[in-house]
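Mods, move this if it's the wrong board.
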Amino acid sequence: MGGGGKNSGKRRSRPYVAPMSEDTAPLTRALDAVAAAAGRVASARLAGGIASLVLDATALSAHERGALEADIRDALARVPEVTEVRIAQTAEKVERTIVAVGSGKGGVGKSTVAANLAVALARAGRKVGLVDADIYGPSQPRIMGNADRPEMADKQIVPVAAHGVRLLSIGQLVEPGAALAWRGPMAASALGQLIEGDWGDAEMLVVDLPPGTGDIQLSLIQKWKPAGAVIVSTPQDLALIDATRAIDLFRKMNVPILGLIENMAGYACPHCGEVSDPFGSGGAEAAAKVLSIPFLGRIPLTMAIRAASDAGEPPAAGEGEEAALFRDIAGRLMERLGPS
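Not the wrong board. Structure tokens:
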């Protein structure tokens, strides 16, 4: 008998032939009715009543991905030729610009500056996320007026919205007033969950760092490499000494210094209008010249900024002199960062 028996000789390999695809025009017409799907359907085929799609979900939040898929399924379910819908989602990793906001010591208003800077950048058209990385003293939920607990989606924390900015803070995840007795590795792990949250199409993350030059700063620099750092200081000599240490850390780790901001620069008496300088005057600007770094601007010590921050209404979200100050500083920062 010849060698054509089924158990004899080598099995012949047969070329793979893809099943014939049916006319996809009905799919195309249905998808055209889903506005959010425009430009996101990488491929679509119909075979045996099964509609198979590859959906590009790059830069969409978990909520947006779910809503888009639901809309597509609903549209295709109305196509008579379709008996089943299969959707695969793909997404490219979004590269975000990370701006670290730091200070050499506490009490210089760094968190207030970071919050208002994020809001001003958002009002200037940037898609901004604000990360409260001050693990031991989170204050952004209070300043931004949103302490809602964020949800989880696909093992990622979903930021909450506040004043046009996406926000994540450890303060949203723990009981108010609870002390966090965490060692370095635990704090670094918490930072990772915040940075790797579901930021959707946010193109920039403003990271409010804790004071000093510790584990959180090193973790951020080593793992996520900020595009640059903004340093906040008051005009007084002691604050500037500590600010210089923070600048030195970023420089040693090859993180560009985007600029220095002088906070609490002068106090205007609300009764007589006389301006005094409880923390000195011009120290940060002079230090910026000595250190050869840009000076982004000065922010006065005003009752309006303090009251608005306590009320969860960052001045940058409104109008007036304070909003204009932060708008100008944000403008100088964007110039330093370059085109988005």
